[in-house]
Amino acid sequence: MPDNNPPYYVGLDIAKDQLDYCVTETQEGRCPNTPEGRAELIRILKALPSPRVIAEASGGYEKVVMAELFAAGIEACLVQPGRVRALAYAEGLLVKTDRIDARLLRRYGQKVEPRLAVPIAPAAATLRELLEHRRQLLTQRVEVQGRLPLAGRTLGPLLKLQERSLLSQIEKVEQRIKQHFGEHPELASKSERLQLVKGVGPILAATLIAYVPELGTIESDQLSALIGVVPYAKDSGPKRSPRHIRAGRTQVRNVLYMAAVCASKCNPILKAFYERLIAKGKPAKVCIVAVMRKMVCLLNRLIQDPNFVLAN
Fold it and tell me: β-pairing, 244-245 with 75-79?
């Protein structure tokens, strides 16, 4: 049941070495970003009525802090830095320091009331790290492959050696991902259920499990907006501009796009849906995004309802 007490917003600016917090406009402080410093911060927060921390993504330094806040039972919201900076511009605030950012984050929470962050299970967090490492290796391999055609006699063999090394590392991390699923039956069961949809492979299933903990817990239209496959209007007066998708979770959307391309060719139902939109004169990219949105709704329903059965 939801807490009847209104949340007590606390702004938290997270840096590599320190944590600046703002409880009120006159009560603020700083803790070192160490286990002892985070424990001190949690003690301060627990003394407040219904604390809710507002922090922004800070290149990964927020992961440990958020995990410890969730473990302590403290609500937290992770917001996009650009949106917080937009509030600063709206207020005419041009100065930027860590303490000022903590105050700004607190005001942002009070005015915007952002969505609560969802805790991620340790097994899913490990899976996310493995997928991020795999993505980085794939990016490096593509860069090396792009340099090979222009490489001379000296550089060519070195690049080929680097490519073989990267390929070996990719195979090892993919094997480690399979092993991780074998060690966690609950993840393997969810992955198998997601792959019941033709066009959904093990990588998309793993990506959804790792990056979308909200899957199966919220409505499909909300989930589509979180992932970033909802087209938004941009109209003004008589002008009607084309709708475009915006924001969302890029890591998930990139993998989902390739799965939608596959599903539009191999999934009988989604293929018919795609061809029906094409027949109406819709651009191919628009049709693929529509297939992506259909897939999100279908996958969300599969996890929401264990008794839901796909049509033959």
Answer: unpaired
